[in-house]
Amino acid sequence: MRPNSNTAVHFFLNHEKKTSLFRLWSNQFLTVLCVLFSLFTLVPLFSLLYLLIKKGLPLLHFSVFTKLPPPPGLHGGGFGNAIVGTITMVGIATLLSAPLGILGAIYISEYAPHSSLTATVRFIAKLLTGIPSIICGAFAFALVVLHTGEFSALAGGVALSILMLPTILLTSEQALIGVPSSYRDASYGLGATPFQTIWCIVLPEALPAMMMGMMLAVARAAGETAPVLFTALFSQQWASSIMEPTASLSVLIYNFSALPYHYQVQMAWTASLVLVAMVTGINILAQLLFRRKFQ
Amino acid sequence: MSVPAFIPQNRYRPRRDYFRSLCWIAAVMIILLLGFIIDEIFTRALPAIHHYGWHFLTSSEWRPNRDLYGVLPMLFGTAVSSFLALLLALPLGLAVALFLSENFLPRPMRQLMRMIVEMLAATPSVVYGLWGIFTLVPLVQHYGGIVAHHWGWIPFLHGPAYGNSLFTASLVLALMVLPTITAISRAALVAIPDTFREGAYALGATRWETIIRVLLPYAAPGIVAASILAFGRAMGETMAVAMLIGNSQRLTLSLFSPSNTLSALLANQFSEAEGLQINALMYAALILIMLTLGTNIIGELVLRRTQKALGGGHCL
Question: Choosing among A79, A107, A215, which should be mutated to test the B contact, i.e. which has the most B CBs within 10 A?
């Protein structure tokens, strides 16, 4: 073996002797393979969209947004309470996680960008994003449900807030980093305190990107089932307080998909269509409203 | 020139910055949160840990009516479904990542493809489950039956084939971790300086010789990190798996038979659990959180090393 015979350069020099036809064909072959693989990943998505529209659309009337879910075996009704429940729980989760996430982001990007505390917060936040959503549910179950003795929207909100917190923190940090440091320098140069600089200069500038991150977190939380499955449970009725079992769109899909009644399964598809439309809508809205200002 | 209104006109007095303290508290709370989650679950699991000890991991009996709990079948199901999902998703995810990072297609087409992958990532898990019930379950039942009939002598492939099986769950998991693999691998590929590509082309390499001999080895640590993180995600994924895996509490070694995972077990039993069953489920949750945390820590560390090697780039 010659020295360095494994490097790329020697490979190409040795390869020169092989027939160029083989090299050409293998190149073409791999390109085709790569394109086929890529196109193959589109098949499930298009199949999903097709089924959502085909099976979800027939039952989609205005009344599904206002009526209560039908009892098993019966026809009619909708999932108004589930939509309200999802919005309530995501709202609670946002109220709990947004202040913490944004203040934390301000600390790690404005006050102490290079401290070891900051490195730890960042690492923990990355690990929190990787925590399975069902664990958030188990945590909220232990913390809220076992203490209050009741499945509730509050417990669901707590579970979802754990899920949203790291996303809000990390996107807010990126938003703050995106503000040019010359803004801060100018503000300090004019004699502003750190608080004035952050509150009057940096935050207004970072706000659009922060809002975008928050909306992405909201969209993700709205689609989650596992955290609310055994914290908020489900309910056939309109919720009158946040301390009682509450319906959500995702749990409705899960429950109805397992029922042996055709109508309920149809309704699960309609709920899926509404849920996917909601999630995609929030995502697109976030991009449209805030992306241009972000760049 | 006037001074902006928010700046005090009087002499600057250094004061205690209460806002800074508030932010500091928020930052520390985020760190404590992870410990708090583990502690809360650990406390609730403690009676079961005392009662069953390590036997919990090696027993394959899960009978709530007789207070017998063991998670060996779920551990097996979690490991096999996640590994199989990774095996299926890695070639596809890598192909899409190459597709998106190299100039096979004009930029607008790549943007479109990227949007589609992002949509795959944004689709709720429960919707994948519903889709799987209608498409994957019949497919696996039909073709799994054929495979089990002809190649049943191969280990893990023996029949009878069910629609709700370990393999069905692996298929949907593969689809769900694909965006993770694509995003991180693509970031690793994009971070490679163009001079590498130009250098290889100048030496007479074809496009694929460049990719295989130059780009992939260079991006390998990033791809490894992507795989590890995707594996962690697959282990924790719940709803779609709970809807498709069949939720059998028995240990079976065939890919085409119903099985269970830790997360699906939690999803199915928590809402109706009582007494010691709650503690046993918390024990299972503790095992799951330890497995995913361990995987994610390794993945993050590999990713961090990769970014350092590439000069502290902006991966993701």
Answer: A107
Residue B222 lies in a domain: yes
> Does residue B257 contact residue B162 with C-beta atoms inside 8 Å?
yes
* B304 has a pLDDT exceeding 80: yes
| Contact between A164 and A221 (Cβ < 8 Å) | yes
pLDDT at A295: 43
- Taking alpha carbons only, the member of A36, A55, A273, A253 closest to residue B135 is A55
Residue B223 lies in a domain: yes
Report yes or no on B215 lying in a domain.
Answer: yes
Grouping H, G, I as helix, E, B as strand and the rest as coil, residue B63 is strand
- The CATH class of A63-294 is mainly alpha
The answer to whether B4 faces chain A, any CB pair under 8 Å, is yes
Nearest to A160 by CA among A231, A102, A256: A231
Number of domains observed in the structure of chain B = 1
Residue A294 binned pLDDT confidence (cut-offs 50, 70, 90): very low
* Tokens representing residue B23 in the block: 């932010």
A183: which strand partners? Answer: none
Q: Does A258 lie at the interface with B, CB-CB under 8 angstroms? A: yes
CATH number of the domain where residue B144 is located: 1.10.3720.10
pLDDT band at A1 (very low <50, low <70, confident <90, very high): very low
**DSSP structure class, residue B215:** I
Per the prediction, chain B carries an average pLDDT of 89
Q: What is the ipTM of this complex?
A: 0.89
Task: Name the residue range of residue B187's domain.
Answer: 75-309
Mean pLDDT of chain A: 90
Contact assessment for residue B28 and residue A107, using Cβ atoms and an 8 Å cutoff: no
What are the chain B neighbours of A117 within 8 Å (beta carbons)?
27-28, 31
CA-based nearest residue in chain A for residue B13: A193
- Band (pLDDT 50/70/90 cuts) for residue B116 is confident
Which of B28, B204, B266 is opposite residue A16, by nearest beta carbon? Answer: B204
Helix, strand, coil fractions of chain B, as percent rounded to 5: 70, 0, 25
CA distance A53 to chain B (A): 12
| Domain segments of chain A as ranges | 63-294
Nearest to B169 by CA among B252, B245, B230, B236: B245
| pLDDT (0 to 100) of residue B12 | 55
Once rounded to an integer, what is the mean pLDDT over residues B76-91?
A: 95
pLDDT at B164 over 80: yes
Q: Could you read off the pLDDT of A26-43 as tens digits, one per residue?
A: 999 999 999 899 889 889
Touching B: A residues 36-55, CB under 8 Å:
37-38, 40-42, 44-45, 47-48, 51-52, 55
Can you tell me which residue has the tokens 């010659």? A2
- Contact of B176 with chain A, judged by CB distance below 8 Å, is answered with no
Write down the pLDDT at residue B305: 83
Handedness of CA A246, A250, A254, A256 (dihedral sign): positive
- The H or E element spanning position B68 is strand B68-69
CA atoms of B255 and B234, how far apart (whole Å): 17
Question: Is pLDDT at A4 greater than 50 in this prediction?
Answer: no
Average pLDDT of the residues in A183-190? 94
Assigned domain for B178 exists: yes
To the nearest 10 degrees (0 to 180), the angle between helices A262-294 and A249-257 is: 150
Q: Of B109, B238, B282, B287, which to mutate for an interface test with A (greatest number of A Cβ within 10 Å)?
A: B238
Chain segment B24-47, per-residue pLDDT in tens: 999 999 999 999 999 999 999 999
